[in-house]
Structure formats: structure tokens, C-alpha cells
């Protein structure tokens, strides 16, 4: 198979005719779907315990369990991806996903939260190792000026997988009450499909064979730190990216509690609100890739930031001023899962519409940042830079779990609706909209 050979960039097929690119797209899509289907199932189990057993919300614990492996292993994974074949790492991670899906089945059989959290930690460890190879291989196997559109597709499919994996969780939880282990059959099949797709990813040169291990590799190694200190543009992109994921880390559990606890929606309806963000993100990422063409278009970051601020303020206003429907009435409308697709109130229509727009602006926001992080570092440091990006992003997500817990305590203490948190998040993004305006950068047809 010709994909198995090292292909000079001048001989590459057009992006959308490149089977290697589509193999990478398919394998990462189903991996992200599996991750977030399982994670959302665990979060819904935690949210349900709050309502039924009046216990403390364990969602922040679950989110921290998912995030911490990215903090601990992203630097190591970046070093590993620069030292070894990224293609082999991708295939190995997909095989590990099959094993973890089998362990998830056993965890659901137990009916206890602790085994579910252990498997969640294993799943996030596998994803932490996969990330630097996934994003690092793109600039190695594609032309630089194809990267905006390639990242538009990759980011779109990633976010769609994240959101629809979350949305599917609400449906399968209602479809298999007390038998969540049955979802593992689906997860195992998805992992097998992803493994097969990974075989289409072509080989690329190893970035830095024999790269020595230092303890600083577990975080951000000295070469990467030096690069970030010299290149403030790259450092600013990393920090802005981390803020974005901090906000995203809070929005996921916030939408769950906002839907189930404040609006009294069913689990399937709450998951569909999150899915609306996926629809918006898909359009935003594709549009960002097409508009950017052969440059890193930072104007889109500004437009996206303002859009996120406005939609967060709209969600805040819905929760504060608009009364929710009664729990009993909405339970009756959910006698059929398919009825969940049709909003039952103006508030539900409005929330889904605004979350779709929020996702659209998030897609515009994130694609230029990702392209900049792939193209700006030297070839020998791309994997470690992606590892550093994952590390800093997930530090933001870990901090978001802590802040979500603090916001929850404050809202409960003062009897405020949880929608107040949307206002706080808008204030976090506002400085980026006001002050972060770097110039666009042109991209070469070939890598330097």
C-alpha cells in the first residue's frame, strides 16, 4: 500500500482526495466520540445521584479524574511522539481503546461509581498519549497551506464527536436504565472501526530520533520553554487556548445542571442542548478553515470571542429572567425518546438556538489557534509543543473543575440560579475580545 511509504510533500494528492488525511479524520472522530460518550454517562450518573440521593455533586471529581492524566502525561506524550513514529503511536492508542472499552463493560456491571472513575482515568490517559501524535502528524503529512482547511475538518469532527458523544449518552441512559453495560458493545465496535481507519495514516519521518529523556519532559522541557520565552506570539496563543478550554470545561457540567436542575429538563433533552453546540461548532470550524485559506486568520479569533461573550450573556439572561417549565409536565413529554428532539417551550427553543450560535463562534475561535501552534514551532519540536498545549489546556480544565465547584457552593449559599455562572464565563472571555488582536500570518505551500 503506497500510504505505507514516506511520501514527499510535492507528490501529495489534493487534501480532500488524500486517503491518509481521511483515515486520520475517521480514527480521531470515533475516538473522541467514545471518550465523551463514556465521560458523559459518568457525569449523568453523578448528576442523577445529586437529585435522587441528595448527595454532593461528584461531577467535579469525575472531570478532575478525566483531566489529570492530561496534566501528568501530556509532556511525556509530546516527547514520545517526537522520538518515535507518530503513526505507530496512533495505531497503538486505538488498540488500547478496545481494551479500555472491555473494561468499561465490567465497570458498568459493578453498578458503583469508583470502577467507572478508574476506567475514565484510563481512557483519558490513552487520549493524552494520542493527542500530540494526532495533531503533530498533520504538519508532517500535509502541506502547510492545507493546514487551515485540514484543521477545520479535524476540529469540526472532533467537536462534533465530543458533543454528539455527550448527546448519545442521554439517550442510551434512558434507553438502558440499569443496563448501561450494553453500551459497551457499541463502544467496542467503534474502537475497532477506529483502529482499522488508523492503518490508512501514512508514515512520516521521526521528528527527532533518539531524543533523550529528562525529568523536565514530564512537563514542558527546557527547549520548549526557551522557545516560548523567545516567541511571545506562541506563548500568547497557548494562554488564549488555555482560557478557551477553561471556559469549555465549565460549560459542559454547567449545561447539565442548568438543564436538569434549573430548567427541569430530562437527561435526553439536556444532552440535546449540548448537541446543539456541536452543530454550531461543525459549521464554525469548516467556515474558519475555508475563510483562512493560506493564512492564520486571527480576525476570526476576535469575532469568535465577541460571539462567545454575547451568547454566554444570553444564556445568563434566560436562566435569570425566564421561568422554567414544571418537572412533571416535561417528564410526560419524554414518554418517547424521539419526542425529546422537539422543544416543548420557548425557553428550550431559545436555549438550543443560543447554544448553537455559541458553538459556531467557538469553531471560529479555535481553528486559527490550532493552526498557529502546528506551523510556528520548528519541525523537531512540533510534538512537544502540542504536548505543551495539551498540558496547559488541561491545567485550565482542571482549574475549571475547581471553579465549577466554587461557583456551585456560592450559588447554593446565596440561592442564586446556576445560570449566574454564564455571566462569570462571559467576563473571562471579554478581555480576549477586547485586547487580543494579533496580525494574520501567511502560510507557505511547502514546509520550511
UniProtKB/TrEMBL annotation:
Membrane topology, as annotated: Multi-pass membrane protein
Pfam families (UniProt xref): MFS_1 (PF07690)
Major localization listed first in the record, in broad terms: membrane
UniProt source species: Gimesia aquarii
Membrane-crossing segments per the record: 61-80, 89-110, 116-138, 150-171, 183-201, 234-260, 272-291, 298-322, 349-371, 391-415, 421-438
Any one cellular-component term (Gene Ontology): plasma membrane
UniProtKB keywords: Cell membrane, Membrane, Transmembrane, Transmembrane helix, Transport
GO molecular function: transmembrane transporter activity
Protein known as: Lysophospholipid transporter LplT
Compartment annotation: Cell membrane
SUPFAM superfamilies membership: MFS general substrate transporter
Amino acid at each position: 500500500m503506497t500510504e505505507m511509504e514516506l511520501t514527499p510533500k510535492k507528490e501529495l494528492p489534493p487534501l480532500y482526495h488524500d486517503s491518509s488525511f481521511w483515515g486520520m479524520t475517521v480514527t480521531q472522530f470515533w475516538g473522541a466520540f467514545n471518550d465523551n460518550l463514556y465521560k458523559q454517562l459518568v457525569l449523568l450518573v453523578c448528576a442523577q445521584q445529586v437529585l435522587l440521593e441528595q448527595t454532593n455533586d461528584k461531577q467535579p471529581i469525575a472531570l478532575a479524574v478525566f483531566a489529570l492524566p492530561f496534566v501528568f502525561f501530556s509532556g511525556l506524550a509530546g516527547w514520545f511522539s517526537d522520538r518515535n513514529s507518530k503513526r505507530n503511536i496512533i495505531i497503538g492508542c486505538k488498540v488500547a481503546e478496545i481494551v479500555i472499552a472491555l473494561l468499561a463493560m465490567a465497570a458498568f456491571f459493578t453498578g458503583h461509581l469508583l470502577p467507572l472513575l478508574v476506567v475514565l482515568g484510563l481512557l483519558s490517559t490513552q487520549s493524552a498519549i494520542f493527542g500530540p501524535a494526532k495533531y503533530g502528524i498533520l504538519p508532517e503529512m500535509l502541506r502547510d497551506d492545507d493546514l487551515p482547511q485540514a484543521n477545520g475538518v479535524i476540529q469540526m469532527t472532533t467537536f462534533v464527536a465530543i458533543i454528539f458523544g455527550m448527546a448519545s449518552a442521554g439517550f442510551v441512559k434512558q434507553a438502558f436504565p440499569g443496563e448501561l453495560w450494553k453500551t459497551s458493545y457499541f463502544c467496542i465496535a467503534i474502537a475497532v472501526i477506529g483502529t482499522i481507519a488508523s492503518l490508512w495514516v501514512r508514515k512520516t519521518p521521526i521528528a527527532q530520533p533518539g531524543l533523550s529523556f529528562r525529568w523536565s519532559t514530564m512537563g514542558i522541557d527546557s527547549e520548549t520553554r526557551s522557545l516560548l520565552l523567545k516567541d511571545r506570539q506562541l506563548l500568547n496563543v497557548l494562554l488564549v487556548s488555555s482560557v478557551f478550554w477553561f471556559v469549555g470545561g465549565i460549560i459542559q457540567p454547567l449545561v447539565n445542571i442548568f438543564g436538569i436542575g434549573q430548567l427541569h429538563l430530562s437527561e435526553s433533552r439536556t444532552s440535546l442542548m449540548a448537541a446543539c453546540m456541536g452543530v454550531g461548532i461543525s459549521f464554525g470550524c469548516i467556515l474558519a478553515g475555508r475563510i483562512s485559506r493560506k493564512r492564520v486568520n486571527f480576525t476570526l479569533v476576535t469575532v469568535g470571542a465577541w460571539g462567545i461573550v454575547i451568547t454566554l450573556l444570553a444564556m445568563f439572561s434566560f436562566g435569570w429572567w425566564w421561568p422554567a417549565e414544571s418537572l412533571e409536565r416535561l417528564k410526560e413529554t419524554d414518554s418517547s425518546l424521539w419526542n425529546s428532539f422537539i422543544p416543548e417551550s420557548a425557553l428550550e427553543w431559545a436555549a438550543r438556538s443560543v447554544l448553537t450560535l455559541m458553538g459556531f463562534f467557538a469553531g471560529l475561535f479555535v481553528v486559527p489557534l490550532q493552526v498557529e501552534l502546528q506551523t510556528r514551532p520548528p519541525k523537531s519540536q512540533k510534538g512537544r509543543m502540542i504536548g505543551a498545549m495539551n498540558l496547559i489546556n488541561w491545567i485550565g480544565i482542571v482549574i475549571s473543575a475547581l471553579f465549577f465547584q466554587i461557583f456551585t457552593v456560592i450559588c447554593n449559599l446565596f440561592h442564586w440560579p446556576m445560570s449566574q455562572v454564564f455571566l462569570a464565563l462571559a467576563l473571562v472571555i471579554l478581555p480576549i475580545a477586547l485586547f487580543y488582536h494579533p496580525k494574520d500570518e501567511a502560510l507557505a505551500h511547502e514546509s520550511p
